[in-house]
Amino acid sequence: MIPIAKPSIAQEEIEAVKSVLMSGNIAQSKKVDEFEKQFADYIGTEHAISTSNGTTALHVALLSNGIGKGNEVITTSFTFVATANSVLFTGAKPVFVDIDPNSFNLDASLIEDKITEKTRAIMPVHLYGQAADLKAINEICEDHNLILIEDAAQAHGAKFDGKKVGSFGTGCFSFYPTKNMTTSEGGMITTNDKSVYEKARKYRNHGQEKRYYYDALGFNFRMTDICAAIGICQLKKLDGFNKTRQKNAEYFSKKLSKLDYLQCPKTTPNKEHVFHQYTLRIKDGRRDEVIQGLEKAGIGYGIYYPMPLHKQPLYIELGYKDKLIETEKAAGEVISIPVHPLLNKEEIERIVSFFEEFK
């Protein structure tokens, strides 16, 4: 079976974890500080604040930007549930905008129609590893005095106009094992805003600045030194991982773009796609046939995402009645195939051959 994703863990990560375990400092300590500094340097921001996972990174980022009850946050319905749920956690309301059918990201041309007096932030998702239209979104934020929060959970190292995502607004990353780099579980917030930095550090640690003195309602959202030790090793390899993903994706597109029944990912010169997922669109309602074929061939796949958030029972119960045409169409057509850096040449050829021979 060719897995859809596979974390690349080597001896360096194992030795790093052993070193932390032997030190006795296995909770949040010096390794977390080191990882935060290195990650901020990599993204190009003044600050980085680690958290326990990508969901808590989003939650804390929103709170640290003052998002709360009575506010609205414009985002996408075509994403993992944590994006919108993190808004709900603060007491605010997610407002969904349809996607661009080529990038699967927020259609910036539709955002201003959804802005109200309650809107406080726009939260694009850099889906599958490709940046949203940050130039247009940033201009909207500036024109309407809105906060930009980037859900970059799938886009470590991705760029827009040569600048890394997560450095345009407040960035949020996930280090889940399937991501382009991992800490096993973990998250990170990136920012140039000192106030956001200070609040985020407080919220992720029970609301305390000084030990046992609490001036805010906070959470236990800390990262451990064990996770940070893995992250330090993985960060050094991230650019190499991404280059291999890009090379695999380039080969897939070269071969599969000739096939009429599917559409390969579309990229633009101003965006560096890091291919967290290589996502095809299967035309003419044939996705179920393709899935059956992949299962028989022993090739892993994923559907990200089969049901948009505005169609989920939770959001229906909350009163959402959106009609997002491109979002709903994409949910019925997308399928992701393995693109991770541990694929070997034989596996890549097997995947290509399957689609070329599919009838």
Short description:
By secondary structure, the chain is α/β, with parallel strands linked by helices. It contains eleven helices and 15 strands.
Name its key features.
359 residues, alpha/beta, Aspartate Aminotransferase, domain 2, Aspartate Aminotransferase, domain 1, 7-stranded mixed β-sheet, 11 helices, 16% strand, globular
Task: Describe what this molecule looks like in 3D.
α3 (54-64) packs across α6 (194-203) and α7 crosses α11 (345-357). The protein has two domains: 11-233, Type I PLP-dependent aspartate aminotransferase-like (Major domain) (Aspartate Aminotransferase, domain 2), CATH 3.40.640; 238-357, Alpha-Beta Complex (Aspartate Aminotransferase, domain 1). The protein has helices spanning 11-23, 30-43, 54-64, 82-89, 134-144, 194-203, 225-256, 287-297, 313-317, 325-331, 345-357; strands at residues 47-51, 72-76, 93-97, 119-122, 147-151, 159-160, 163-164, 170-174, 187-191, 208-210, 213-214, 262-263, 271-272, 278-282, 334-337. The strands form four sheets. A seven-stranded mixed sheet has the order 1-9-8-5-4-2-3, with helices on both faces. The chain contains eleven helices and 15 strands. The protein is globular, with a radius of gyration of 20 Å. With 359 residues, it is α/β, with parallel strands linked by helices. α5 links the parallel β4 and β5 (147-151).
Shape: globular
What is the string of helix and strand elements?
HHEHEHEEHEEEEEHEEHEEEHHHEH
Q: Under the CATH scheme, which architecture of the largest domain would be assigned?
A: 3-Layer(aba) Sandwich
Count all strands and give the number: 15
The order of strands across the largest sheet is 1-9-8-5-4-2-3
Q: What structural class results from the helix and strand content?
A: alpha/beta
How confident overall, as mean pLDDT?
97
Number of helices: 11
CATH C-level class of the largest domain: Alpha Beta
Overall tally of domains: 2
Helix content: 25-40%
Distance between the ends: 21 Å
Biggest sheet statistics:
7 strands, mixed
